[in-house]
Every structure is written in structure tokens, then in C-alpha cells.
Design a protein that fits this description.
Layout (H helix, E strand, L loop, with lengths): L2 H11 L22 H20 L3 H19 L4 H19 L8 H28 L3 H21 L6 H17 L5 H6 L2 H16 L13
């Protein structure tokens, strides 16, 4: 992933409404299928590279990739709910600060792991919110894509926290990914919604929050959906 892709993602994000929207106003968001994998997988790829470069003491690369990651988080914060955005900005600012002081600051792999886990945790909440908004706006395909991203970030948040994923959690993630795929098929979406995938994702989020001791700032899902 390079700066060109980040710029493309920024352009995509700017097609979404301003974060100044109220929490009850669902945005209209159009996702470019060709960018989707890059769109939600930027942190995972970049974070792995950063950690590996840090262990090899390639600090120039660490600095550059942290700055790129901070830019990505800022892009997402710009279209997130205020409570989530505030915390994404905090993480982005921390990444930027470390990138600018990498030669002077005492950072450990544990510090980076914690920062990466926090990033994924916030992105999971952000994408679950976007899945809800897409559902409320009748954009089932987007709801499925955002739900898939939610499961990805939940899983990575746990792994970067150095916690283990239980078999029950793994099964729930698998079920949610399957439902995310179904939501993208207009012939299967209605049946998928009957399985209450976003409610199940919300419950999993809150369960994992207790497991890895991470705060949840995303409002609870509506009981009927």
C-alpha cells in the first residue's frame, strides 16, 4: 500500500457526507468495489510492516508508515460519529508524534501493539456504525461490506492486544462474515437481515470489549434490527 492508494481512499471518503451530520442522519456512501480491500485492510498491512521494520530498526520506514497510517485514521475520523472520531484523531495524533520523534522517543513493540489494537478497535466500531447507516439507507451491499470490515477489525483488535480468540468467538466471526456476504446479494439480503447480523456484531463487540478491556463508545444497536 502506498501514498497513491491512500490518496485514492481519501478521494473516496470525500464522497461521503460531512461528519457534522447528526447521529440519526444516515449518509449516502458509495463504495468502489475495486478499492474495498484496500479500504479496510490498510491498517492490517501497514501495522504488520511497521512492527517488522521496528524490530529490524529501520526507523525511517517506521516513521513513514506511521505517518501514512495516521493519515488513513484521520480520513476515517472525518466521517465517523463524533465520539469515535475524537478517539481516532487521538490515535492518529499519537502516531504522527511518534513518526516525527522516532529517533528521540523511547517506544517499544508493546507500545506499538497497544496502539495498533486501539486503532482496530475504534475502526471496528466505526465500520459497524457505517453498516447500520447503510442498512437504514437501504444500501444492503454497503452494509455487507462494512459488516465484513467490522469483523476484520474486531479480530485484529484482539490479536494485537495479545489475547486469544476463543472457538465461540471464531465461530461468531465466521457466521457474521457469511451474513456479510449474503447482504451483498439482493436475493439473500432479506433472509440475512432476519438473522440480525448487526445486532450480533454489536453483542460481539461488547463481549470482546470486556475481554481486552477496551472502552466502547458506539451507541447500542436498536433492539429490533
Amino acid at each position: 500500500m502506498n501514498y497513491k492508494v491512500v490518496i485514492m481512499i481519501a478521494t473516496l471518503a470525500m464522497t461521503a457526507p460531512s461528519p457534522a451530520m447528526t447521529e440519526t442522519d444516515p449518509p449516502v456512501v458509495t463504495i468502489d468495489e475495486n478499492l474495498w480491500v484496500a479500504f479496510y485492510d490498510v491498517p492490517s498491512r501497514r501495522f504488520r510492516d511497521i512492527r517488522a521494520a521496528f524490530v529490524r530498526r529501520e526507523f525511517a520506514r517506521v516513521s513513514k508508515d506511521l505517518a501514512t497510517s495516521a493519515s488513513y485514521l484521520t480520513i476515517e475520523a472525518n466521517r465517523a460519529l463524533p465520539a469515535i472520531a475524537e478517539r481516532l484523531y487521538e490515535v492518529a495524533d499519537r502516531m504522527t508524534w511518534i513518526s516525527e520523534h522516532i529517533d528521540d522517543v523511547d517506544v517499544t513493540t508493546t507500545d506499538l501493539d497497544s496502539l495498533f489494537s486501539r486503532s482496530h478497535w475504534l475502526l471496528a466500531q466505526h465500520f459497524l456504525d457505517m453498516a447500520r447507516r447503510s442498512r437504514d439507507g437501504g444500501q444492503n451491499r454497503n452494509a455487507g461490506l462494512y459488516l465484513w470490515a467490522t469483523t476484520h477489525h474486531l479480530e485484529r483488535a484482539v490479536l494485537w492486544s495479545n489475547s486469544r480468540i476463543s472457538r465461540d468467538v471464531e465461530k461468531t466471526l465466521e457466521d457474521l462474515r457469511d451474513l456479510a456476504d449474503q447482504l451483498q446479494d439482493e436475493n439473500l439480503a432479506a433472509a440475512a437481515y432476519r438473522e440480525k447480523p448487526l445486532v450480533r456484531a454489536d453483542k460481539l463487540l461488547r463481549k470482546l470489549g470486556k475481554t481486552i478491556d477496551r472502552p466502547i463508545v458506539l451507541p447500542a444497536n436498536k433492539p429490533s434490527t
